[in-house]
Amino acid sequence: MADSVRIGLLGRGTVGAAFADLLAARAAAVEAATGRRPELAGTLTRSEGDFGEILERSDVVVELIGGTDPARAFVIDALRAGRPVVTANKQLLAQHGEELFGIAREAGVQLRFEAAVAGVIPIVRVIQESFGVTEIDKVFGIVNGTTNFILSEMAASGAGYEDAVARAQELGYAEADPSDDVSGADAAAKMAILARLAFHTPVDFDGVSYEGIERVTPDDLAYAKELGLSLKLLGVAERRDGGISVRVFPCFLYGGHPLAPVGGPFNAVMVESEAITEVTMSGPGAGGVQTASAVLGDLVSVLAGETPLPDAETSLPLVADVSSSFYLHLEVADRPGVLAKVARILGENEISVKSFVQRGIGDDARLAMVVHECLESRFAAAVEEIAELDDLRSPPRSIRVIEEEFV
Ligand SMILES: NC(=O)c1ccc[n+]([C@@H]2O[C@H](COP(=O)([O-])OP(=O)(O)OC[C@H]3O[C@@H](n4cnc5c(N)ncnc54)[C@H](OP(=O)(O)O)[C@@H]3O)[C@@H](O)[C@H]2O)c1
Known about the structure:
Elements: E1 3-10, H1 14-25, H2 27-34, E2 36-44, H3 51-57, E3 60-63, H4 71-80, E4 85-87, H5 90-107, E5 111-112, H6 123-130, E6 138-142, H7 145-157, H8 161-170, H9 179-182, H10 185-199, E7 209-210, H11 218-226, E8 229-240, E9 243-254, E10 266-273, E11 277-284, H12 288-304, E12 323-333, H13 338-348, E13 353-361, E14 364-375, H14 376-387, E15 397-402
Parallel strand pairs: 1-2, 1-3, 3-4, 4-5, 7-9, 9-15
Antiparallel strand pairs: 6-8, 6-10, 8-9, 10-11, 12-14, 12-15, 13-14
Helix pairs in contact: 1-12, 4-5, 5-10, 7-8, 13-14
This protein binds NADP nicotinamide-adenine-dinucleotide phosphate.
């Protein structure tokens, strides 16, 4: 009979329960792949189990509690006790990754976290292993399925933001309190982890700037459609000006962009590098069973042996001001000279217009345009100046645009 491997399961909620079921269902396959038969050594929830006893009985610890407290302390204790750890906890990795990587290295045990980023897409493995020695220039994509569903719903049905959130909650794609997702914080934590792995540099989660989708209106989506654009919440981590930029923001994409057709609760991540050009992977963004499957994959990897632990080789600064292309939406009085004033302000800030749509609404007019790439600080200055015009009927609205047109 094959040796057993005893799994200490911390957390038995959506993912933990699915993992326990999957582990039982796939035990024979795990044994065939690794030569070891997995069995649960114990489960910890708020009302069941004792962490010390479970640790004592375990060969591997699977952390599916979430959050940083008490998960951080449990993971540290497990690593220090020489137990490899598998976790799906993005907050923990984004905020304490450096500390945990150091402890894992010191203890000579593995810390695996594939399920923490981009759902089922094996992006951590690909960056760490397949592209481990490739100089990556950019990792970006849709890393939050909840917001992608909400935006898809708004675009498809013309629904308002609140209705689309309610629909996402009804279908189980959004939690009762969706603020972590819709604010962009969840995606920011994932991008911090991906940037850390891709650029081999510590990434301070507090330095990751993020904007969410709370202020997106059906109008933005309707106008964007006319300009051939679709809206996504994007996470972008890239090398810029000798440093790195890690950001999350709502962004319009042209129809030919590989991420444009990624709809519903799906995720997609692109990796760019001179050596590999561009790779895109997409798949389900969350879900108990899907996430559990990524956790089980990590368990098999732990049992199969060594992987390079992410070591910080460099220390790259976070670059604050970068260039982007923008969509700008203005509601103005429909009278002569207004467009000229807007054009003058844009021109003085060296911002040029790529495409433009105007629609009359009674005595007013709506102007929607896409401007070419410019420094974000310059664009912000121009928008501030435009907002001061007497002709404005409501505050200007702007959203970033990925300008490249893929064919
Ligand atoms: N849900 C997804 O689709 C998804 C996707 C990707 C990643 N993840 C990540 O997976 C992890 C688990 O998420 P989940 O959705 O399964 O969470 P969940 O449904 O809220 O389950 C959390 C589990 O942890 C237990 N727990 C909470 N606080 C505890 C404490 N202080 N001591 C001991 N046990 C405690 C809970 O115990 P009780 O049962 O007693 O409440 C519950 O069993 C998180 O890191 C999450 O970010 C989830």
